[in-house]
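**Protein of interest**
===
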Amino acid sequence: MWLIIAIGMCRVIGLYSEKANMRTVQITIDSDLLDDVDAAVQEIGSNRSAFIRAALKLALRRHDIEKQEARHAAGYAAHPVQPDEFDGWETEQVWGAWPK
């Protein structure tokens, strides 16, 4: 089921494109994983290549996010928040009573 959602999201966010400059590659993949891919592409009416392209694009985006998060963490480690650094902003976080 999550595979269907993943390919659908790729279409929505523009990661899926039939018009890209394509190259043929050969990969080795576990039989069980390939069976899962085949089942998913049959359910969504796609093909292996399109599905794997979308999965690779999502994996690359995730990898980029992980690198950004590591840089962010390193920045905070090198320059930790100082005591009372954000105290002046605490009043900005108060929204008051919820309207009825």
